[in-house]
Amino acid sequence: MALKFCVVILLIMFPKIILLCGADEARAKDDTTCIGNRGIPFKINTRRFKRHENLVSLNATSVRTNSSSNRIELRGFKGRFLNEYFVITCDGHVLSTFRMIFEHPEVHTEKCPVLLVHGLFQSSDTFFEQDKDQSLALKLQNLGYDVWLANTRASKYNRVHLLYEPEINEHDVNRYFSYSYEEIGTLDIAATVDFILSMTTHKKLIYIGHSLGGTSFLALNSLKPDYNSKFATAYLFAPLGYHRYFPNDILKAEAKRSDDIFKTSVENGIREIFPYKDDDALFSPEDCLGNKSYSNICKQLNIQKVMGLKTVNNNVDDTRGGSLGPLFHLAQNVKSGTFSRWDSGEFTNLKRYRNSTPPNYDLGLVTVPTKIIYAPNDEFVSPKDIANMASDMANAEAIEVKRTSFKHEDFIMGPDAMENVYAGIIDELERSPNLCKEDNSSFSSDLLGILMEYKWAWISILLIILAIAVVCFCACNKKEHERHRCREHLRRAL
Fold it and tell me: For the segment 306-330, what is each residue's pLDDT rounded down to a tens digit?
């Protein structure tokens, strides 16, 4: 009887335990992976790729030399080419990722792959807008590093989605542009990093991100801590993170109205900044969003300054567009003085985060050796906030740029960025030739990673072993009881 009871209990409880574990894992993943499109088989629409090639051919910085090839020649940089790869995120965005090569076939290098990530509303073009002697990308390539350049979703290169066609279908606009910098980090950067590592012989890469490129890095590694092991080191140029001491009083005042502005924009079908056009339309300060009816929003949020744009001659080729989402996500954080996830309102927050307010990004989970480089008088980043971020991270250091007049956009476009920022990075990298090679703890870290990745499988195995042990225990108890009864009968018979 005892044995039957044990077996029945195990049969009832064991499936429930497994299902509950799986459900918890699914809920945990739902927060940081694709929501809504998971499980849909993606099929590439070649017509969209043909249209995408036409868009790329309009790029002012690079030109496609052969329509059937992914090789692109850089204008103004003789002998320099880009190999273009299409990286597909798990929610269907097709990202153009560039790898720098010389005119001759690629030469294998033992040095680290380096990923350069642009800031808000920009593209990989920004890394080629400086003079040759000031270009970080060219310098790293000259030194033998495997240089890659990311392009995040909805930028000028990434107008393709496997499910949505916002260019021709207005019903797809809202779904296509419904993202913030969190999706850029946990989906775009994650997919790009995985692709680069799969294409190289290295287990890690060097990350260099400007502004929102740094913000997305922090979001990725705090929400998906397993990605920390994929970065040898990181250099973040003025990342927009903590906002307790946000220095721009004008934008701080406007941020208080950001929720109302965003709601009005969405209700009027406005989800994109700088809508892409196939003509040579100019974008002046009065119609900086591509339509004069948007000019009030542009002025209120000071778009030109955030994007580092000139006030004239910003034609379609120079456009740095994208979703309103990342901008208003930053505005939410400026308003609250925090570095937190997207605020969808109390009801949706309760459903998504199990809390009425969005949780903060836990920078204590970011363990990548990181240098946060900042300017003392940056109009969007406070030195106090940078210091607090560095202290909360497990392995970070804050470094101040020497020139006090250094601005937010100077990290990428400044005439002396090499002297003030890049030279120190290059010297540090050159002193660590084995930076991306596996250390002595690689085996243990890989083993830990495997254990964590398949944790529920291991838990299931342990539960099965436990179940067998319980069954055996019950069976042994029954046998012992039978032996005891047998001995008792024998004793009485004697």
Answer: 555 554 444 545 555 678 899 899 9
- Is 35 inside any structural domain? no
* Residue 112 · residue 146 · CB < 8 Å: yes
How many CB atoms lie under 10 A from the CB of residue 28?
10
Residue 343: its pLDDT value, please? Answer: 92
CB 292 within 8 A of CB 284: no
User: Cβ neighbours of residue 256 under 8 Å, at least 6 residues apart?
Assistant: 335
Cα(429)–Cα(489) distance, integer angstroms:
84
Nearest to 210 by CA among 297, 308, 283, 314: 308
Which phi-psi region, left, alpha or beta, contains residue 374 (left: φ > 0; alpha: ψ -120 to 50)?
beta
Domain count of the fold of the chain: 2
Instruction: Judge whether 38 lies within some domain.
Output: no
* Residue 356 within a domain: yes
> Which residue did the predictor score with more confidence, 383 or 484?
383
Give the per-residue pLDDT at 229.
94
Predicted pLDDT at 290: 56
410 lies in the same domain as 478: no
Write the DSSP string, 147-172: EEE---TTSTT--EESS--TTT-GGG
Question: Residue 101 in 3-state DSSP?
Answer: strand
Tell which residue, 376, 103, 349, has the closest CA to residue 238: 376
The alpha carbons of the chain give a radius of gyration, in whole angstroms, of 27
Closest CA to 421 of 409, 431, 433: 409
Judgement on whether residues 159 and 185 belong to the same structural domain of the protein: yes
Same domain, 10 and 47: no
- DSSP class of residue 112 equals P
If asked whether residues 473 and 336 sit together in one domain, one would say no
- Give me the domain span that covers residue 119: 43-448
Q: Are residues 78 and 10 in the same domain?
A: no
Q: Which amino acid is at 294?
A: Y
The answer to the question of residue 453 being in a domain is: no
Question: How does the average pLDDT of the chain come out, rounded?
Answer: 76
Q: Rounded to the nearest 5°, which phi and psi values hold at 265?
A: -60, -45
Tell me how far CA of residue 243 lies from CA of 220, 387, 399, in angstroms: 19, 12, 18
State the CB neighbour count (10 A cutoff) for residue 33.
16
**How big is the CA angle at 186 (ends 185 and 189), to the nearest 5 degrees?**
50
96 and 9 housed in the same domain: no
The model's pLDDT over 262-313, given as tens digits with 9 standing for 90+, comes to 888 787 777 877 665 544 443 444 555 555 655 665 665 556 655 555 544 4
Write out pLDDT tens, residues 167-182.
778 788 888 989 999 9
The number of C-alpha atoms within 13 Å of 202 and in the hemisphere containing its C-beta is 25
Which residues touch 446 (CB under 8 Å, ≥6 apart)?
none
